[in-house]
Amino acid sequence: MAQAVTAAPPPAPANVVSRRALFERLAGAARVTALSAPAGSGKTFLLDSWIREAGLSDSAAWVSVRYEERDPQWFWLSVLDALRGTAVGSALVRGYTAAPELDGEAIVERLLEDLASLDDRLWLVIDDLHELRSSAGQRQLELLLLRAPVELRFVLSSRNTLGLGLHRLRLQAELTEIRAADLRFTLDEARTLLDAAGVELSEATLAQLVDRTEGWAAGLRLAALSLAGHPEPEQLAAEFSGSERTVAQYLVAEVLNRQPEEARRLLLRTSVLERVNGPLADVLTGGSGGERILQELEEANAFVVALDGSRSWFRYHNLFADLLQLELRRTAPDEVATIHMVAAEWYAENRYPIEAIRHAQSAESWSIAARLLSDHWFGLYLDGRPATAHELLARFPGGAAAADAELAALEAADRLSRGNLGDAARYLGLATRGSGSVPATRSRRFLVMLALLRLQLARQRGDLGALAEEARSLLAAADAPETAHPELGEDLRALALLNLGIAELWAERIEDADRHLEEGIAVARRIERPYLELTGLAHGTLLAIHHSHGLAAQRAREAAELAGRHGWADEPVVGVAYTMLGGVLVGQGRLEEADRWLRRAGRALRAEAEPAANVTLQLFRGLLELASGRYEKALDTLRGVVRLAGLLVTPFPGAIHVFHVQALVKAGALEQAEAALAEIDEAERDGAYAAIALAVLRLAQHDPRAAAVALAPLVDGPVGAPDPFWTVEVLLLEAMARRGLGDDGAAACALERALDFAEPDSVLVPFLFHREPDLLERHRRQRTGHAALVSEILDLLAETGPPRAGEPGHLREPLTEGEMRVLRYLPTNLSQREIAGELSLSSHTVSTHVRHLYAKLDVHRRREAVERARDLGMLARSSSER
């Protein structure tokens, strides 16, 4: 009679990878260890190398069950022989001779008696236990597992998930389980394996190979054999699949041919699917019991993987799926397209649109695929999946949109999502002209699609008028009783309300924007459209900043959290929220934190997707540079902002001109600042923003009276109320103007009011734009209700931006010889008229020199000019004053 088992492991292959993490698990395992994984997972090599590594060769009994063993007697005789072959077992375990009447249960009882006095650790390793097909033998093994002495350790290796009453051992913490996922090779282990075979691959290609093989040990070893000595290993590794000859031979012999005919048919006909369940398998095979077969295959570790806890959906291992598809094409090539089409119909009927579209495309049923994609494009957009929609559209043949109006509309939508407005408009025109060819049953939905495209195009062009008009049309469409799909009405309502609110927001119609955005967010939440909710929350941050910077930061963080939960952290729409959070932090003087959020916004926010928001992002970047004292960089950025804003169809709010003028002033380009003021749109020239910009420039020109006149209409009702930034900005400029006029009381009053508005939301950035430490120091010494806030601002001034203009290396522009001559007289008590007499100059010339001196030293008064000139070393501190 042939041997039922072998008592030693097969010879280890060359270059076995030492798997330290698994060795540690085995060394610290419970009394029973169960390894269950598919063929070729490296179970046998793992156990053999562990035994050798741990020095257990004399205390480990190895039993390998032969193929489809059904005789329990032979199994147990081999177990006894293996135990007797160990140092400890040789003295305890009695031998048996095979006999017809020999009972396996009696062998187990006698073995338990023999091992009752076992004091030393003894391991029983049973490999290929799935081949023990005797139910009696399995019951007897279970008996041994439950009653064996604690010093007898079991290591059971099988392709199948083991029964054997293991649940009881699991409850008693006497079981260690190692499964297929644990046996997958890591990148480092795969690299070691390939290095030993003399194969060099780049990190990217190696990662691709490990992903493709899913870390399957046999797959990687077969890949190493194929790649060794190959002239182009990178290309071969990138293309490695289950159809590669050595892999295919292994999988056919070890897996496919071991399955019954019913299971083989199911595997082949479902191999074209990315995932499969029982009902779908039944449809494709024309049979029944598909779920049972799939579950049995998964239990047998036949390269079938359950995708959910209820074990209703399954997928096949990558390489096994490749092999199955190869076999299907070889054995039934004429059925492949039909299988794809049947799968497409089933997926469509069961509301799995993406799979339905892909299988219709694989069947080359392009018209059906186009209708399916058109029906579900809007849903993909609302679910935040534009990349998926693009991938599906890209699978259609080139030029297909020219003959299909619905496909042309999809091309327009795709170009919009990718920011190609020219192509989007062209495809939209093509779709509009072909609308008459759309069947009557689909016409209503198609017209809604065209309206959505016009809305998105208007938004991305920055055409706020057209955007508002299209949004109102969509609101009407949402209320129309003849809407093709009833559920579309609420989707349209939410989308229209949000876009209407966005249009009103950028047009600074704050109350209307507030109402429509809140309504849109409420509808989105009610219909469970988180992407639409995110759109509303993100743009709502810009709305909130008009009320409270703290509220805007809170809204922005809510939007970021919602985006993170759904995997949309890098979507353009959440970039709007990042932008506003960065802007709030700039406003609070938290410049490093602001920089991080603005950089994150830049990565997410594509200019073409959210053009108005991109202008705001660049504006905040400019303000960050301005607050940091990097004036030339701020000027470059803000010049770009002005250009970007000019590209929008609807003019951007005039606030950007204030900051542009400030940057020009800080960079010392006063003439350019004057020209920039003159270029402000006539409709805005008499407005509040222009007045603020004018005040900034006049202060820089040492004309505080003109600055005060410009600010007068705003001081009691500042431009940005209730936005605290503009209130603080206006009042701080007023304080500077009054100080320049010598009215210290009015200056202190204006500064105290500025601090009143700055404190609640920590709106500190105006104090960084207009760096006035002397003014603040003097105010702190007086009675103020904001002493702590003033100290905080002074600390910020010390930490950020350039040193005072009088400090070495920070004189904007060298003084002329004439200016230096005038400077030497400033520490004296001589008036400008008397200085003119001393220098034999006109009073007008001396006045001009003094004005230029003040500008270059960044001061407003004579005493300040003297102090800063002394700091620069231009004047000796010991000079006597006349």
Which properties best describe this structure?
882 residues; mainly alpha; Rossmann fold; 6-stranded mixed β-sheet; 3-stranded antiparallel β-sheet; 46 helices; 63% helix; disordered N terminus
Strand content: under 5%
The first-level CATH class of the largest domain is given as Mainly Alpha
By secondary-structure content and strand pairing, the structural class works out as: mainly alpha
Please identify which CATH superfamily of the largest domain we are dealing with. Tetratricopeptide repeat domain
CATH topology of the largest domain: Serine Threonine Protein Phosphatase 5, Tetratricopeptide repeat
Polypeptide structure, described:
There is one protein chain. The chain has 882 residues and is mostly helical. It has five domains: 5-183, 3-Layer(aba) Sandwich (Rossmann fold), CATH 3.40.50.300; 187-240, no CATH class; 415-617, Alpha Horseshoe (Serine Threonine Protein Phosphatase 5, Tetratricopeptide repeat), CATH 1.25.40.10; 646-799, Serine Threonine Protein Phosphatase 5, Tetratricopeptide repeat, CATH 1.25.40; 817-872, Winged helix-like DNA-binding domain superfamily/Winged helix DNA-binding domain (Arc Repressor Mutant, subunit A, Orthogonal Bundle). The strands form two sheets. The protein has a six-stranded mixed beta sheet, with helices on both faces. Strands 7-9-8 form a three-stranded antiparallel beta sheet. β4, α5 (135-147) and β5 form a beta-alpha-beta unit. α27 packs parallel to α29 (572-587) and α36 (688-700) runs antiparallel to α37. The longest helix is centred in the middle third of the chain and has 22 residues, at 440-461. The radius of gyration is 40 Å and the shape is elongated. Mean pLDDT is 84; it is low at 1-5, 483-487, 803-809 and 878-882.
